[in-house]
Every structure is written in C-alpha cells, then in structure tokens.
Design brief:
30% helix, eight-stranded parallel β-sheet, binds 1-deoxynojirimycin, globular
C-alpha cells in the first residue's frame, strides 16, 4: 500500500510542508531516484546505455523520478498509464512520475520549425502553436517538454539553428516568453535549453566547445533565459558545451552564481542526454562517481538518461561527501514540480485517451499551423513574377520537394507526417494545373530531362529545392550551407528554358543563395513549414496570402562571412567604400553585409514611414516615447513589420551598431496609415559590463526605425538621455 502524501494543496507553504513530510519518509535511494530520468524500455534501442535495466523494477523501487517517452499517441498514452500505475500503486511511497518529450514545434500537428516561426514576429500565433503542441502531447500523458530552445545562433553551419529563434536576443526573449506562456497555458512543465552558449559552437560543429566573451554572455546569450525564467519556466537544461573549459553540466559558476543567483531561477536543473557520462569524455571526470559528484555539486538536480546519481549519490551522502541538505533541496524541487503539475492530486490527469482522436491533428490545430506557416514564409526576391494570380497558367513544379511530405523539419515525431500537405496539393487546391516532376532527390539527379520538358511545356516554373529534414537539427552541422549540387544543376537546366522561375527554398537554416537569386524571378524562403506547409506556400504564391515574414537570422553572402549578424560592434577602422582606404575592416573578395540581413522580408504591398517623432532630451529614469506613422502606399492589403533599433553612440564599452528594441507587426488596408507608439525604458537602453553589472549611461542614443536592420531601410533620430 502506497504512502499517502497530502493532496489538494494550493499555497507554496502547504506544498513545502507536505514535501517535508515526504522527505522524512524517503530513503537515500528513493531520494536519488527522484533525480534520475530514464528512457522507457521501448526506446532503449535508439541509444540508451541502460538496455539491461529492468525499468518496471526500478519504478517499483522508487528509483526513477521521470521518464522520456516517444511513440504513437495511443500506444504512448497506454504505456505512460501503465508506468504511472507502477509508480503510484506499486512503489512504497507512490510518488508519480513526470513524462517528458522534445515537444519542439508541435506534437502530431507539426508547426513550422522555430527558426521559421520566429520570422513571423507574431507572438500570439507562436504562443498558440506552443499551447496546442503542449495540449496534444499532454493528452497522451506528456507532462514535461524539453522546450523552448533559447540558444542564440549566428552560425548557420550549426544544424540546430532550426530549433531556435535566430540571432537576436531581443526577439529571442520575446519568443521565449511567448513559448513559456504557451506551455504554461497547456499546463506542462517546460524546460529552457541549452544553458548556456550551446549555439556558439566553434566552427558551427555541434557539441563543440565555445568561446564567449563576458559581455556577449550577459548581453546576448543569457537574455532569452532571463525572459523565460521571468515568464515562469519550471526547468532549465544544462548544455553539452564547454565554456571557459568547463562543461556546462559541471559548471558551478554558470549553474549556481549565474542561473540561480543572478537570474533568480528556482526550478529544476536537468542535464542534457547522457551529459553526466560525457564529463568523462570531456576529460574532467576520471570515473562515473566523480562525474556524478561534479554534476551534482555544480547544481544539477536531474540526470537525463544516466544512472550515476542513482548509483553513487546515496553512498556519497553517507560518506559526507554530498550534504544531505543539498540532496533534499534537489528532491524538493522535483516534488514541488510534481505538485504544481497536479500529478500529486491526479497522477493520470494528463492522459486523455478519449480525446486523442478528436483533438490531436484536428482541423483547428492544423489551421493554426497553416496560419503560422503563412506568416513565417519570407519573400526574398520578386521582380513581379509573384503573386501568380492567373489560375489559367500552367505550372511546372520541379525539385525534390515538389510533391514531398518532407516539409516538417527536424525534431518532430509526428505519426501524421504522411498527411503533410505537399506543395503540389496546395497549388492544385489554389486552382492551378500542375505538372510535378522532381528531377532530383536531395543529393542526386533522378531525371532532370523530364523536369526540363515539363518546364518547356508550362507557362511558369516553380522550383522547390533545399534541405531535407534529416540534414538540419541535432548533429547535422554542414560546411557548405548551400543547396546541394544536383539540385543546382536542375535549377540551371530549367532556368535555361526561359520561363519565369519561382524558387521556393526549403531549409532548416539560412542558406547561401548568392548565385541562385540572380537566376530566378522570385525567391521564397519557406524553411520547414510543417504539416500544412504546401498549402501555406501555395497561398503565398497565388496571392491568397500576402507574405509578411521577416528574417530572424541573416542569410550570409558566403560561408566565409560566418558568423554574420546585424548587431555587430563597430571597429576602429570602419569600412567606407568611397574612401579608397586600404586599412579598413572588410573582405577583399566579398561584401561585409550578408546577402539578406536580419529583419528583411518583402511583401506584395509597399510600405513607407511617414512621420517619426521622438523627444530630443529625456531625463534619466524617464521613458523615451517614440511615435511613428507607417503607410501602405500600395493597392494591396498587407502586413508589415515595423522595427525599432537603438544605438548607444558613445559608452564606456563598445556597444553594437544597432540593437532591436521593439517591433510591431501591423495589418494595413490599401493606402491606410497607422501611428504606432513605442516606449523605451532603461531596460532597453542599458547593458551589462564585463563583470556582470548592469549600467545605463547618460549620453546620445540613436533610434532607427524601418522595415529591416539594413541601414538603407532605416530612418534615424537622436535623443539625449540623462544629464
Ligand atoms: C539532446 C538534445 O540536445 C536536447 O535538446 C534534447 O532535449 C535531448 N537530447 C532529449 O531528447
């Protein structure tokens, strides 16, 4: 008969008292069990080292506190119910398990990859998408999501740029908040990852070490984590990478001084997959026991998939190596999360088998996926070829993604992938007569002549090229971030037919599109748009939807420029092309600017800034008020993204040439004008010094407003702040 812990508790005080009671009943083995997250036996085959462990017995013995689960919805729900029953009814204390999964951009309904949805700049839709993802996964028993991924990334060679919100800390923070709120709305425990700096992997090679300056750490990499913590995230995952030579899993300074003390995080710290074991690979622990000790001492609460805490912590407490209080604190955090998730009241509350058929992948969820995809797609070039409003045009659709369901990108386990709407289906729904001939697969030619012949017989050619879902995401770093060669040969062959060509680029990362953009009449970056991807792309092409996505990450001119991002620091020798001066900060063989900068995106409408007002002098502590009027100067209704950047013109340390500090996505009817008010508080003007102190310095600030981070698209005013 299981121990009866207290239920129906509301306040932290009540919960903490109840946890005290539970802790007083627990053995050291049971306590360390709560800190152990296991993979279920059914997925052991994909790489766990614990193949021979008897999961059922470990659960009965209270030696597992949470589990990772991935499977087809009903199968998973059944299995989770069974494991939960073992924990609740057959273990001594009856403490329920948390079930976790990587719910990154959807569950069965797949939304665009996060890199794509960040281009929507639409926080409401992102929050809704995350809520739906959490609700779908939740109905199958998942109570914890390993999401959102908040790694700022400036290197598209790194495959995991797909999972994050791009290069900008301000946008990243807004999206972090939206995602945490979405998971909170769904009632799931979410986990900010990867703490911290994982996106700065040297050379873009996954898992590689990082070199991050203190100012970048504080001002760039930590910022989205702060936003996620403030929004109420209950867990943080330590990253795989080393920082200052110390793997994050054993980095006491980062996990304690920074995460707990500076950022105020009170929830659970969990390692990444097998990262305690990897302390031995990093060569900072000689054996399993030392790895466990270093990770626990650094501030890790839960080990993901390792079993070293389970094996070594009890004895280390008995030996006085690990203080009993420290163990209790970690267990308290886990039990607190279980209370807050409602699992202590109803361990089965997440499992809703009866709602799986009606809710998961339902029409409403897919509609949100389509809307988000439509807002995420970025129109990069258009000489007027788009939109294709004349439905009598015959369309040749070529390329490996012409009629492919591989539009969902990395990190999704959907069993409805085959129901992904293809581009062909989408175009046919829009009323076009389409001849779809792939011509190549992702890396190899299949039948380019047939694709060319389809192009010859059509009025317009749509070419769908790029990356498949398996070449972006974790462990998918690439040295050349281009469209693979076979596909480029296909493009050249169809372009030679002389028909208007629209290139739809599918990818999990920014691609180098420098050569191809001049060959085509229109270029659309669709990333991996999700379950409704083909429909969203077709509606953009037909003009049913006016494109409104803006890049959240620069598209480089060449790989040699990487890392390239808009918020760079000035140099002592800025490049002034007209000066003829040799000793300037520039490349001899290519431009400094990326091909397409952060914030860039075209529309079928044209917009302009009409008025821009700002106070010339603002007293310290006062809010800076900015007012700007934007006008749709075209006959086409559309949405645009008004972006506000700030520059501290002279400061005690070199500050970026501009930093995004506000944005507003607005819908404007033909010739409509709208006045937008922005407010900048000290929060938007200050910065962290290298020692981690926050400062707001008096002086002149530039405020630039426009439709892209490119200087040519911005209007700038200066105000004086403080004395
Ligand atoms: C490794 C990845 O780095 C992390 O993001 C993920 O949550 C875990 N594996 C669990 O799948």
């Amino acid at each position: 008969m299981a121990f009866r812990y207290r239920r129906g508790l509301k306040t932290d005080e009540e919960i903490n008292e109840a946890i005290d009671e539970i802790l007083s009943q627990m053995t050291l083995e049971e306590k360390s069990g709560q800190l152990c997250q296991s993979v279920g036996a059914e997925i052991v085959a994909i790489g766990s080292t614990k193949i021979h462990e008897d999961i059922d017995e470990l659960i009965r013995a209270g030696r597992i506190g949470s589990m990772i689960q991935v499977d087809e919805p009903k199968t998973m729900a059944r299995r989770i119910r069974r494991y939960q029953r073992l924990a609740v009814e057959e273990s001594r204390l009856g403490i329920p398990l948390i079930f976790a999964q990587d719910v990154i951009h959807g569950y069965e309904t797949v939304f665009p990859i996060p890199l794509a949805w960040s281009c929507s700049f639409n926080m409401d839709l992102i929050r809704k998408a995350v809520e739906i993802s959490g609700q779908e996964a939740g109905r199958c028993g998942i109570s914890m999501a390993f999401s959102p991924m908040l790694d700022i990334a400036r290197d598209p060679r790194w495959g995991r740029v797909s999972e994050g919100a791009g290069e900008d800390p301000h946008l990243g923070s807004e999206i972090a908040k939206a995602q945490v709120e979405g998971f909170n709305d769904a009632g799931l425990l979410c986990c900010l990852k990867h703490f911290v700096g994982y996106g700065a992997a040297e050379g873009g090679r996954d898992y590689n070490t990082t070199e991050i300056t203190d100012t970048s750490l504080y001002n760039t990499y930590l910022k989205p984590f702060k936003a996620g913590i403030d929004a109420g995230a209950g867990a943080v995952m330590s990253a795989f990478n080393c920082l200052n030579g110390i793997p994050m899993t054993a980095n006491r300074h980062m996990l304690k001084d920074i995460l707990r003390d500076m950022l105020g995080f009170k929830g659970i710290v969990i390692t990444d997959y097998s990262a305690v074991m990897e302390l031995m690979q990093h060569c900072v622990a000689a054996d399993e026991r030392e790895a466990a000790l270093k990770a626990f001492d650094a501030g890790v609460d839960i080990e993901m998939t390792d079993s070293y805490f389970r094996q070594y912590l009890p004895q280390m407490v008995r030996d006085g190596v690990v203080p009993q209080d420290a163990l209790d604190e970690s267990v308290r955090r886990v039990l607190y999360a279980k209370y807050r998730l409602g699992l202590m009241d109803d361990p089965y509350r997440f499992i809703r088998e009866d709602e799986i058929d009606s809710f998961i992948f339902c029409a409403d969820n897919r509609r949100i996926s389509r809307e988000l995809a439509e807002e995420s797609i970025v129109l990069l070039e258009n000489d007027g070829a788009l939109p294709l409003t004349d439905r009598r045009l015959s369309v040749a659709l070529v390329g490996p993604f012409s009629d492919s369901t591989d539009l969902c990108g990395c990190w999704q386990f959907s069993h409805r992938r085959e129901e992904t709407v293809t581009i062909r289906q989408g175009l046919e729904e829009e009323g076009f007569s389409v001849t779809a001939v792939p011509g190549t697969d992702v890396f190899d030619e299949v039948d380019i002549p047939s694709a060319v012949s389809a192009a010859r017989q059509s009025d317009v050619v749509i070419v769908a090229l790029g990356e498949s879902s398996v070449i972006s995401g974790e462990a998918c770093s690439r040295q050349s971030v281009t469209i693979p060669d076979a596909q480029l040969r296909l493009l050249d062959a169809v372009v030679a037919e002389g028909k208007p060509v629209v290139l739809v680029a599918l990818s999990g990362r920014p691609l180098v599109l420098t050569d191809v953009r001049n060959k085509v009449n229109a270029l659309v970056a669709a990333f991996a748009p999700g379950s409704e991807g083909g429909r969203a792309i077709a509606r953009i092409i037909s003009g049913a939807v006016n494109p409104s996505g803006h890049l959240s990450m620069s598209f480089p001119y060449s790989v040699g420029q990487i890392p390239v991002h808009y918020d760079e620091l000035p140099t002592g020798r800025p490049y002034v092309p007209s000066s003829g001066e040799h000793f300037q900060s520039r490349y001899l063989d290519g431009p400094n600017a990326p091909l397409y900068p952060f914030g860039y995106g075209l529309s079928y409408s044209s917009f302009r800034l009409k008025e821009f007002e700002i106070d010339g002098h603002v007293a310290k502590g006062d809010v800076v008020k900015v007012s700007v009027t934007v006008e749709n100067v075209s006959d086409v209704a559309g949405k645009t993204l008004v972006q506000l950047y700030v520059r501290d013109t002279v400061a005690s340390i070199s500050r970026p040439v501009k930093e995004l500090r506000g944005f507003r996505k607005v819908s404007l009817a033909p010739h409509e004008s709208l006045t937008l008010d922005f407010e900048l508080s000290e929060q938007e003007l200050g910065f962290f010094l290298p020692d981690g102190t926050w400062t707001v310095e008096d002086g002149d600030f530039d405020v630039s407003i426009g439709f892209s981070s490119d200087d040519g698209c911005l209007s700038t005013r200066t105000f004086h702040y403080g004395a």
